[in-house]
Amino acid sequence: MKSDKLTFGILGGDKRNYYLAKALKNDGYEVKLCGFEKLSNMSCEVASALDSDVLVLPIIPFEKGKEVKSPYAEKTVDLSGYEDKLKGKKVFTGKREKFLSEFSGMEKETLSYSDREEFSVKNAVPTAEGAIEKAINSSDFTINGSKSLVCGYGRIGKVLSEMLRGMGSEVTVSARKSSDLAWIKLNSFQGVKTGYFSELEKFDLIFNTVPAMIFDEEKLKRIKSGALIIDLASSPGGVDFEKAKELGIKTIHALSLPGKVAPKSAGEIIESTILSILKEDDG
Amino acid sequence: MKSDKLTFGILGGDKRNYYLAKALKNDGYEVKLCGFEKLSNMSCEVASALDSDVLVLPIIPFEKGKEVKSPYAEKTVDLSGYEDKLKGKKVFTGKREKFLSEFSGMEKETLSYSDREEFSVKNAVPTAEGAIEKAINSSDFTINGSKSLVCGYGRIGKVLSEMLRGMGSEVTVSARKSSDLAWIKLNSFQGVKTGYFSELEKFDLIFNTVPAMIFDEEKLKRIKSGALIIDLASSPGGVDFEKAKELGIKTIHALSLPGKVAPKSAGEIIESTILSILKEDDG
Amino acid sequence: MKSDKLTFGILGGDKRNYYLAKALKNDGYEVKLCGFEKLSNMSCEVASALDSDVLVLPIIPFEKGKEVKSPYAEKTVDLSGYEDKLKGKKVFTGKREKFLSEFSGMEKETLSYSDREEFSVKNAVPTAEGAIEKAINSSDFTINGSKSLVCGYGRIGKVLSEMLRGMGSEVTVSARKSSDLAWIKLNSFQGVKTGYFSELEKFDLIFNTVPAMIFDEEKLKRIKSGALIIDLASSPGGVDFEKAKELGIKTIHALSLPGKVAPKSAGEIIESTILSILKEDDG
Amino acid sequence: MKSDKLTFGILGGDKRNYYLAKALKNDGYEVKLCGFEKLSNMSCEVASALDSDVLVLPIIPFEKGKEVKSPYAEKTVDLSGYEDKLKGKKVFTGKREKFLSEFSGMEKETLSYSDREEFSVKNAVPTAEGAIEKAINSSDFTINGSKSLVCGYGRIGKVLSEMLRGMGSEVTVSARKSSDLAWIKLNSFQGVKTGYFSELEKFDLIFNTVPAMIFDEEKLKRIKSGALIIDLASSPGGVDFEKAKELGIKTIHALSLPGKVAPKSAGEIIESTILSILKEDDG
User: Fold this and answer.
1) ipTM of the predicted structure?
2) Which intervals hold domain D-isomer specific 2-hydroxyacid dehydrogenase NAD-binding (chains A, B, C, D) (predicted)?
3) How far apart are CA A205 and CA A182, in angstroms?
4) Domain positions in chain B
5) Are the Cβ atoms of D129 and C145 closer than 8 angstroms?
6) pTM of the entire structure?
7) Which of these CATH numbers, 3.40.50.300, 3.30.300.30, 3.40.50.720, 3.40.190.10, describes A3-115?
8) B chain contacts of residue A168, beta-carbon cutoff 8 Å
9) Taking 90 as the threshold, does the pLDDT of residue B246 lie above it?
10) Which of A141, A188, A261, A272 should one mutate to test binding to chain B, selecting the residue with the greatest count of B CBs within 10 A?
11) I want to staple D34 with a disulfide (CB 3.0 to 4.6 A). Which of C75, C117, D17, D49 is the partner?
12) In this structure, are residues D52 and D89 in contact, taking their beta carbons and an 8 Å threshold?
């Protein structure tokens, strides 16, 4: 089966899957898009979409049972009863184990695009842009001329700290590993060991990317009045939000930014990841 | 009259004047803030505010007659009847001639802070950030990896093009003067003569800062589907908005961004401009 | 006379004029190059070169009398006796008045390319790169991680400060005008008023672009041991070099960098400037 | 043994070890520096230096036998006969196995500072600066406005590509891994797969960091006339230098740059690496 002759069935999901379908079409693939009646004139029945070689579901495949979350659908996208049709297809989703809990025995055919390094690296971009947008939107001051702290120098931390500098903020980055701290310094940022924030009171903007409780009561108490904390770490995040509220500190827990601020880019990232996986598989 | 002993009366306006008052207080000045009952516990009567040495009105001083636009006031801020109290004060506003049309004979005492080079340069920052925010918010794609065009290399064009590059866009800048084009190239942007856009079809994001009709029907027809035009030039702007709508091109005419996206920074810019003017005057 | 049919005679000079000749040839012009026997197989007699429409001499046209400085010539390039042949030609040089002191009465035909804004802007680039090279070469430390001071925010100061930041230095820029200081801050540099250097002792690298005595004894005494001063201002420069030597401070007075570090780029800058002038003239 | 009470004996080496000694002294350690009579007034006998807790030799410990390469020494620094004194000391060098081939049985006491991640990361900076300096120095054109290719996106490639962009070059970076290529794109560089250079003819500057034959005859033939190749990969490098010479292509094989362009920084990198190792050991 040559990858450039594959047909794709996209089943439900948000605008990312809509743009995924468009991107695949633009690249010459045959695509059936199911569950987007409100958005698109590409429309089809579930049964017909399942006739494709490759099936793509949202990151979280099901809302309840075998029903796919489809905010742009007029009819429910439900896979119940189609167990046989799925056999032998390649099925892409994000949370593979959630799919398998409904369709046991399909371990071999089920693939995750969101586990892939390439996917995470590329999604750091829309995440960082979403964070920048929140910082402009939800503060009373400009990023330019502000002092900002980025906690964590993983993928998002790396992209975000460069963008903040590009906007004219004076950026401090925190990390735990000494080799990360060497890179931080060499990339001309101020570096500080995560948790050991000697100058916490100076920051106007604080971004957290570390999935651990970093900003507890003790730290929150040292934060400057008027500062904004944007937490990008997945739930429960790295900030004691209740305590922050009590102390009058403005916080935003910003999740799932790629689909929100750049669904087209996010859809194209899914496309390139899926095509990479298929190509290797093909190889 | 030594400038560090001056007292200030701030009369009406939006959040910028609120933050102007805070900034002046932080710098040790005595301030009376009038017309912000909904926002602040600094509150006072018009008559009392007028007892100050320096009076500050919004950029556009009056809404109708001698009434100051005061969205955060509970009582109207009206200067009618106070003609005598104003004599001999220094009065700051933006549109000086609008103030003088109500208060003739005060030419000597009335000063504009918005005519000042320093004010315009500094306001380019919140304007550019507002434009970045719109670009993230109102497009389906990321700035990073996009191709963008900035028309005009004045204050806003200079700041905006650097920020777009800092976000990872591939930036082309247009200007008319050959020395501006030399600077554009030397600052490592693609340069093009304004109006002579040979590759208009390649841009995802188009920002206009030139107050002249640049994007007419002929040009709009060459713009890529899905592209976003953000016009920052004061009304009527540089885009044929009706034609764009007909052609299905998304446009945003973004005006007065500083007060919207960064009222605190904008208030501090007003403060530093006013203090500069007073200092020179004092000298 | 259409500019694209012009013939050029290049008479003497250093490698810049050699590359000027190459650039003109590449652009399709007929060129006679005189005084470069040691470098080139394009070679010709003075008399023959003077038969061209446009004549180009070095920035400083004569070494002594009417003899052109020609380090790559085997025979002297001497214009004595050719007064009549020069009449009616366009003659380009840098120091126009030096040419006219030998050839009086040619005011109309004699043009300076180095007086031109475009020429100065573009030459800021090779000057700044030469300064960077000296800083790498003549110091014991890396630019990355250093603290540097750039005095003056004119053309060279603007280009140099960006390059230093691009290399990873923490850059402070000095200027006198408050609008320049606003730009410095907004471009995310530390700004300081020229002469009022409160933290002179912190800098590892000091670059001067201001043609006035800035670094006198009092200032030199405050400079950190091991620091390097690179003076880019034309003679006598802005540093008390003798006093610096006494104090054991390393200084470099770096002049005429474009011709030294990037003669090809410098020659192309001369070409584009001359062609711009001819085009306008033609216009 | 508390690390802050340690005494250090530095034996031979180039300026890096001289600056290492100065840095340790500045940090309050007792240091004996041996083999630098021509440079320093810190001077001592080999036997006395060996009385220290920690001994530091150059990266390549011996020139011949047990003699340490010491370009700044007046007397030979020879460790022959001191086998017993070395026992129980901590000995730092770069090439540990070369030291052990002369002093067998000292495996436990002998440590390499150059094997350490932190050391390599930090040394990427002086290496990249040395490459920039060569590019300015050995080409006829400016980096600003040039098109450059950086082969390899390891430590040196990362630092160098940022610096080249900071100087105003249009930078393409090559890598083999797809996740590296994702990072390259996201950092706003042009990306290309190493070896698959579709546009080799466009580059003015080519930097190689990959220790494998990349620029063979076929590739060299496609390189633009006047371009400069700077090879930073350790011997034998990644360029067919003989073939390049035949083809008239200018090449530079630039090795050991840190010690040459920034011995002070290089010495401080050795210091911080050694202190990190001792601290962990101590821990």
Assistant:
1) 0.92
2) 140-233
3) 23
4) 3-115, 121-259
5) no
6) 0.89
7) 3.40.50.720
8) 125, 162-163, 166
9) yes
10) A141
11) D49
12) yes
